[in-house]
Specification:
Elements (H helix, E strand, L loop, with lengths): L4 H15 L9 E3 L7 E3 H17 L4 E4 L3 E3 L5 E9 L1 H5 L6 E8 L2 E9 L4 E6 L2 E5 L5 E2 L12 E4 L8 H10 L4 E4 L3 H9 L4 E7 L1 H4 L2 H7 L3 E4 L9 E6 L2 H12 L1
Parallel strand pairs: 3-5, 11-12, 11-13
Antiparallel strand pairs: 1-2, 3-4, 5-6, 6-7, 7-8, 8-9, 9-10, 13-15, 14-15
Helix pairs in contact: 1-2, 4-8, 5-7
Length: 257
């Protein structure tokens, strides 16, 4: 099925009405994970609430999986996967590299998705017509770079500290093979792969709501998104996105050691 850009804009606008007034407002932050720090804010909860309401009104038979309000009807062939603020740590730090992620799976495959960054006024989305961008500089079709060599690639990861044990050793060797490595930016780094500014993102331990919306955006722009082992990314896990199939294969081999 196809999802209209008008509906994606409605989702983005509804979420922005909840997130933007609370951004850089020094609001309360709760911790979801005892013994660690997994922040959640009122903006997270309220943005997901309005997104779910719009989906339920438009597609009442569809299922929904959200980070903050759980799952409903996920036995449906059509399931929406929501991260109202991907990058809550950036959000509470006042950095505009967080985003609202909404993706649609059909029979488990990600077929449409959007990433909205309302502070910068950017919308990255993919539907049956391809991968597209709206924002500063005007609308355009998204296309990945044609990089095929690790030596010419720009790599992002949230932080190398997420790689544990031998995986950290392999990551460090991998990073030394690329031209430029940078850290942070969560979903924004994946969007930059689709936009042709970043070549590789390697992030371990992602949840479905961290990646489902981004898969069709990157794939329809010409990139590849899988687990580190080459499996489907829709269920989350250790996720590798790359600008070209050749670069993806090289990065996967490097991460395997």
């Amino acid at each position: 099925m196809d999802i209209s850009i008008d509906f994606m804009r409605r989702l983005a606008d509804a979420a922005a009405a909840e997130t933007l007034p609370r951004f850089r407002s020094q609001g309360a932050v709760a911790n979801k994970e005892q013994g660690s720090f997994d922040p959640v804010t009122e903006a997270d909860r309220e943005a997901e609430r309005v997104i779910r309401a719009l989906i339920s009104a438009e597609y009442p038979d569809h299922g929904v999986l959200g980070e903050e309000h759980g799952s409903e009807n996920i036995s449906s062939r059509h399931v929406w996967v929501i991260d109202p603020i991907d990058g809550t740590r950036a959000f509470i730090s006042g950095l505009p590299v967080w985003g609202t992620l909404v993706g649609l799976t059909v029979d488990g495959d990600a077929v449409a998705g959007m990433m909205s960054q309302p502070f910068t006024g950017e919308l990255f989305y993919a539907n049956a017509s391809g991968a597209h961008y709206e924002g500063p500089g005007g609308p355009r079709r998204l296309t990945t770079r044609k990089t095929t060599s690790l030596a010419e690639a720009t790599l992002f990861t949230t932080t190398p500290a997420l790689f544990k044990g031998d995986a950290r050793l392999r990551y460090d060797l991998f990073e030394r093979q690329v031209q430029l490595a940078r850290y942070g930016t969560d979903c924004y780094a994946f969007a930059m792969v689709a936009a042709g500014s970043v070549d590789i993102v390697a992030d371990p331990g992602l949840k479905p709501y961290d990646i489902v919306a981004l898969i069709p955006i990157i794939e329809k722009a010409g990139g590849v998104v899988t687990t580190f082992e080459g499996g489907p990314a829709e269920r989350g896990g250790d996720i590798l996105a790359a600008a070209t199939p050749e670069l993806h294969a090289a990065a996967m081999a490097a991460l395997r050691g």
